[in-house]
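Lecture notes, unit on binding sites. The following record was shown on slide 14. It pairs a sequence with nicotinamide-adenine-dinucleotide.
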Amino acid sequence: MADKVRVGFIGTGGIAGAHLGNLKDFDDVEFVGMCDVAKDRAESRAEEFGGSAYTDFEQMLAKEDLDAIYVCLPPFVHGAPEFAAIEAGIPLFIEKPIDVDIDVALKIRDAAAEKGTLTSVGYNWRYSDAVTEARSRLEDHTVLGALGSWMGGMPGTPWWRVRSQSGGQHVEQTTHVFDVCRYLLQADAVSVHAVAAKGGMTDKPNYDIEDISFVNITFDNGTIANIQSACCLSGWGRVKMEVFGRDLVADVTQGRATFTTGPDQTEEIKSTGNPYQTEDRIFIDAVKSGDGYAIRAPYADAVETQKIMIAATRSMDSGKLVFIQNDQLVIA
Ligand SMILES: NC(=O)c1ccc[n+]([C@@H]2O[C@H](COP(=O)([O-])OP(=O)(O)OC[C@H]3O[C@@H](n4cnc5c(N)ncnc54)[C@H](O)[C@@H]3O)[C@@H](O)[C@H]2O)c1
């Protein structure tokens, strides 16, 4: 590898901008390709940050000598870019959620494992001080269950409100909460039951997702969780995770954690730094060293989070409990 890590982007929209903003400050990163089906977006990113603009990722892969690729695509277009990068032996940073369903994600996981591809998924909560501290304190405790929520609004991107493109709120945004739940409980789900309601947002063009949903989860270590999602609040709401153990409540957001051990016995810690920047730094370092030990959400781990959200979708649609049995989502 040259002195600088040669990075290409596939998808140069909103979240790509956040990563580009971080990476441009790393003196060991060089942008060589910006690919987006929207030509003007690829061109303006290339003009601002460097590299050549492409509208076809296969052309970018054929023409550029890439050390790493950032995949910042809407959930429904995952698949072909990842398979092409894996085939070419290029490490991947992939934004969450990794799929709109689960089948493509399982195949990407297997292809990456077979090739030994370095992967990192954008579950940035895992890199915040608050979550890191909570995980460490909960490790020494008997943890019993968790309540999580992402009760918020609807992002403006048009694909977001179409279920076949985003998966709905529980898949798209609340995925951070499902993931941090697994991360703090240190467990994988074995069964999921979900209920949902819709009908309050029919004035939004093409809107066909659930307005609100509640998901009950049982984990393989005996812990339980309830995770709530909503997208009917415009620009306000509540996003957090509470974990309950014996004589302990950890109330965690990306920015702070409070630990309550009794009446009037609460300690708060605040996150410093930018978890997006930390995940980017760790990924670039991993690309340079070839060692992914510091990556907190490799692709195979993100697949376990994805299974919960998609089991919830199956449960909402069927009204039944869904068991997660290895890679199978089995409706009871
Ligand atoms: N980690 C986080 O906190 C966070 C925050 C925001 C968004 N995201 C995730 O990032 C992903 C993208 O979200 P966004 O807000 O950037 O969306 P966006 O719509 O702003 O950007 C997506 C871009 O992908 C392009 N695109 C679509 N299909 C393509 C293809 N086949 N090849 C190349 N480009 C293609 C679109 O033209 C668009 O420019 C979503 O999964 C979202 O959940 C993560």
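Take-home: The first strand starts at residue 5 and ends at 10.
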